[in-house]
Here is the input.
Amino acid sequence: MRALHADTGYLLYRLGLRSGQLFNASLQESGLRLRHYAVLRLLATTDGALQRELSARLGYDPSAIVGLVDDLERLGFAERRPSPDDRRSRIVVLTDKGRAFLQDTDEAGTQVTHDLLGPLDPAERETLHALLLRIAGDGLK
Here is the structure.
C-alpha cells in the first residue's frame, strides 16, 4: 500500500489548505477571508458580474456568493448595480475602496506565495504555475 504522501492529489489538497491558512492569516486584520479576496480579484478583471457568474467562475455555491457580496458591500468594497442588459438583474462591481484594498493586499498575497513556494527556485515556481494552469484547463474560465 502506498504512503499517503505518495498521492499527488492528497499533496495538492494539503497545499491548498496550507495556502488558504496562510492567506487567511494575512487577511485577518481586515476581517475578510480568502473567499472574499477571490471575489474582489475576479471583479477587478471585469466591469461587473452577475452573482451567478461569480458563482460559476469561482466554483462557489450560489448561496455563499450572496453572503460574500453582502459582506463586501457592507465594507464598501463592492456594490450591486442594475444590469444594463436586464433591469431585473443586478451586477456586482468593484468600488474604488475595493480596488484600493486589493492594491494594499497585493504585497501580502505575494508574500504568502513566496513563503509557500520557498523551497522552489524561480524557474521551478514558473514551471509549477504553468503545470497547474494546464491541469486546471478550462475549469478556470
About this structure: The chain has a mean pLDDT of 90. Residues 67 and 126 are 35 Å apart (CA to CA). Strands lie at 49-50, 78-82, 90-94.
